[in-house]
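2024-03-11 09:14:02 INFO worker-7 job=invfold-0412 stage=load source=structure_tokens
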């Protein structure tokens, strides 16, 4: 989109160091340029914010705070902030990522498969968890802020910038707020403090759009969009497959119903990724050729190859003097330092943060660049640091990060350090376990509420029959007693006793024998006498439920016992009665009446067939003779 009011600054040098070469992107708050860092002789990205923000004291105060926080983030999936400052306009210096953005991919109709979306989403969730654990909520997760390096590894950009812009008095161009609202959680329309669950909601919308090309629950206005999201939860399109359940939970209206944190969502995305076919390589919308074309002061090819993360060690030129730096570098002092005349300071630290490990450029003179190992496992970090010739000193501390993950390093990435000198890494022991009571014997609803109040995710999908524990009651939990915060606690729930099988061989015998068999399997026999034309009196006809059927333990089984045929006796004294009264007597016994002779009202019955006293089946026909 075009942005009025932002001048084209190509050719300008900011802070005496960053020469702007060409714009590569424009957004609501500013413009991004490819730039030369003339001090370190490397390509960087410089985000120049709107000139009107330079006069906004509230924004500048927040911008300085947020830029310092963003510059302190070191994670494989967070865009590195190298520098920031104010030179007529506020600006930030970022690592240059040549793979382009997810927005660029979608604008070129390059949608992701569910497997690719799960893979990218898991990396983004890991970056969010890292930032959230340090008190930093992004507030503006969207495709334009998800950028890729040339290997397809995603970085989350603009941490802290949304909160700084929120304090600005400058009004953004028409449509800018709408663009942000497209990915906003419903609570972002209120005055309440936001937490990391708003970022998880936005990530769910981005995942859906990356697969389908459409953002759900978008109205014509920002207020309409937020209102729609407050009324209804996100419904996953069928195209997402196993990803659907993940985005639906993250996209619920009430933050309390979403994942409790980004780490839990990251694990859920990992499970979805495991259930999908392997993800193909991303079809990136990169800017690599533009970087090559905008290199008028390019180094010889042998030196530029150092920027290729796939290059071998033998391709790098060792003829560059390297200036050693202290272990901990003050960022503000670094910005103010003027390069010494006659000394070329070159610092190339290329970190390939992939499962295969870390490849770094070695410096001459017995020193090496410290790699960025925050976010890696302790073993991967140890191997990567030792691979470049540095030592490792490991310390441990309780933290929200998963156990065994590096959460801090004592020497900043990119600093040159003497070979063999140890790099201090701080490894997470995991969060302090949270204790919970013994849940055995509690109703499932009660146990679930107890765990959720303590911040756990409850899995109550495991059920088993138990002869002692009533149905719907917790038998046990896994783990028992304590668990890491926000982890999954599995509840094993009783389905009640095993069902019983109604025994065979009870028909034709006595009721007593049938009852004994039924009660032997812990069912209750109930006698039900009934007429039968075929089964002799006092013999069992059958049962309900029938033999072989399943019935809950302790439930009743009705045993039908024969009373023989249903017979009635033709009453005496029919002869001499008026035909009307005789007919009524027979019909009251369930018999059918046929009259033979000359009928007249009040005519007397001469005889019946069969005669009085004879037993016949109920429903039989009796003839009355006149």
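2024-03-11 09:14:09 INFO worker-7 stage=emit residues=626
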């Amino acid at each position: 989109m075009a942005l009025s009011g932002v001048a084209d600054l190509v050719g300008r040098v900011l802070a005496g160091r960053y020469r702007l070469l060409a714009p590569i992107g424009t957004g609501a708050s500013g413009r991004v340029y490819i730039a030369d860092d003339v001090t370190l002789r490397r390509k960087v990205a410089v985000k120049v914010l709107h000139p009107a923000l330079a006069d906004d004291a509230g924004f500048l105060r927040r911008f300085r705070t947020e830029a310092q926080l963003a510059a302190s983030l070191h994670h494989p999936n967070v865009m590195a902030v190298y520098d920031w400052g104010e030179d007529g306009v506020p600006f930030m210096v970022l690592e240059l990522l040549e793979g382009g953005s997810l927005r660029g991919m979608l604008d070129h109709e390059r949608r992701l498969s569910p497997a690719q979306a799960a893979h990218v989403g898991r990396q983004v969730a890991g970056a969010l968890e890292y930032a959230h654990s340090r008190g930093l909520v992004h507030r503006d997760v969207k495709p334009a802020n998800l950028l890729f390096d040339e290997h397809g590894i995603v970085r989350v950009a603009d941490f802290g910038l949304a909160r700084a812009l929120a304090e600005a008095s400058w009004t953004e161009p028409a449509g800018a707020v709408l663009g942000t609202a497209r990915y906003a959680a419903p609570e972002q329309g209120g005055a309440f403090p936001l937490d990391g669950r708003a970022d998880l909601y936005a990530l769910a919308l981005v995942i859906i759009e990356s697969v389908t090309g459409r953002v759900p629950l978008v109205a014509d206005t920002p207020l309409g969009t937020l209102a729609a999201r407050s009324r209804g939860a996100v419904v996953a399109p069928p195209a997402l497959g196993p990803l659907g359940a993940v985005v639906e939970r993250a996209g619920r209206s009430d933050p309390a119903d979403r994942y409790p944190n980004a780490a839990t969502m990251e694990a859920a995305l990992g499970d979805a990724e495991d259930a999908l076919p392997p993800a193909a390589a991303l079809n990136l919308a990169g800017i690599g050729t533009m970087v090559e074309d905008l290199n008028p002061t390019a180094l010889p090819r042998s030196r530029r190859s150092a920027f290729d993360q796939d290059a071998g060690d033998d391709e790098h030129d060792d003829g560059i003097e390297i200036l050693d730096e202290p272990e901990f570098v003050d960022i503000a002092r670094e910005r103010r330092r003027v390069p010494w005349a006659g000394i070329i300071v070159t610092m190339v630290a290329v970190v390939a943060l992939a499962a295969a490990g870390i490849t770094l450029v070695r410096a001459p003179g017995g020193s090496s660049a410290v790699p960025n190992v925050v976010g890696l496992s302790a073993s991967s970090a140890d191997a990567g640091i030792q691979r470049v010739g540095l030592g490792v000193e490991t310390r441990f501390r309780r933290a929200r990060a998963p156990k065994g993950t590096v959460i801090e390093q004592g020497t900043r990435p990119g600093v040159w350090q003497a070979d063999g000198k140890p790099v201090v890494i701080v490894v997470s022991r995991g969060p302090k376990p949270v204790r919970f009571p013994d849940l055995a014997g509690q109703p499932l609803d009660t146990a679930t509420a107890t765990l959720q109040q303590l911040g756990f995710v409850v899995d109550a999908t495991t059920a088993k029959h138990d002869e002692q524990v009533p149905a719907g009651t917790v038998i046990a939990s896994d783990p028992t007693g304590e668990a890491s915060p926000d982890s999954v606690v599995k509840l094993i729930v009783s389905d009640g006793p095993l069902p019983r099988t109604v025994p065979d061989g009870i028909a034709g015998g006595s009721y007593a024998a049938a009852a004994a068999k039924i009660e032997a399997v812990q069912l209750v026999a109930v006698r039900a006498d009934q007429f039968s034309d075929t089964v002799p009196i006092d013999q069992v006809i059958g049962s309900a439920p029938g033999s072989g059927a399943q019935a809950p333990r302790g439930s009743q089984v009705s045993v039908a016992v024969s009373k023989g045929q249903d017979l009635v006796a033709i009453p005496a004294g029919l002869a001499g009665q008026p035909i009307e009264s005789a007919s009524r007597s027979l019909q009251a016994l369930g018999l059918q009446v046929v009259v033979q002779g000359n009928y007249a009202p009040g005519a007397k019955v001469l005889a019946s067939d069969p005669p009085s006293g004879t037993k016949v089946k109920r429903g039989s026909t009796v003839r009355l003779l006149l």
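2024-03-11 09:14:09 INFO worker-7 stage=report msg="Residues 1-5, 171-179, 296-365 have pLDDT under 50 and may be disordered."
2024-03-11 09:14:10 INFO worker-7 job finished
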